[in-house]
Amino acid sequence: MQLECMDNECRTVMFRHFLDGMSCVRCGGPATLKPYNPVKKQTDQSKNKGPKIQVNADTTEALERIKEVTEAANECVFALEKLEKVMDKFKGKSETLIQFDTVLDGRTIANQINKVTREEIRAKQF
């Protein structure tokens, strides 16, 4: 139940739990019954955005092809790594050297450490 004040300057709307008879709680003037229709809160805003189109597609064949391509790519990577190890043996390298730069306080320290260790290894071999 909802009441609205009939005074043109007041127009207060009162709900059931604030009612004290049939008079306005603010100005004391007469009040009339009004229908109470609470507004439902919309939780999904996408309901109001244009027409909906539902598409059903069978993607099983595409997924199978993607798996095949992924497996082939993994086999290629494995073969290239194996080839790289074999080529390194012919070049005299036993392992692949991985280089990366570490920056500390704006200075690259990994290259400096790498250069020092290379020089030490060369000095020991000769």
The overall pLDDT average reads 73
The coarse silhouette is: elongated
Radius of gyration: 40 Å
Give the uncertain stretches in residue-range form: none
Count of DSSP H/I helices: 2
**Structural class designation:** alpha+beta
Give the strand line-up of the largest sheet.
2-1-3
Order of helices and strands: EEEHEEH
Helix content: 25-40%
- Largest sheet, strands/sense/barrel: 3 strands, antiparallel
Q: What is the count of distinct domains?
A: 3
Q: Count every beta strand, where a strand is a DSSP E run of 2 or more residues.
A: 5
Whole-Å distance between the termini? Answer: 101 Å
What proportion of the residues form beta strands (DSSP E)? 5-15%
Structural overview:
The protein is of the alpha+beta class and 126 residues long. The protein folds into 3 domains: 2-37, no CATH class; 63-95; 96-126. It is built from 2 helices and 5 strands. It has helices spanning 60-91, 110-125; strands at residues 2-5, 13-15, 31-34, 103-104, 107-108. The strands form 2 sheets. A 3-stranded antiparallel beta sheet has the order 2-1-3, with no helix packed on it. It starts with a strand and ends with a helix.
Indicate the topology.
Layout (H helix, E strand, L loop, with lengths): L1 E4 L7 E3 L15 E4 L25 H32 L11 E2 L2 E2 L1 H16 L1
Antiparallel strand pairs: 1-2, 1-3, 4-5
List the main descriptive attributes of the protein structure presented here.
two-stranded antiparallel sheet; 2 helices; alpha+beta; 126 residues; single chain; 3 domains; elongated
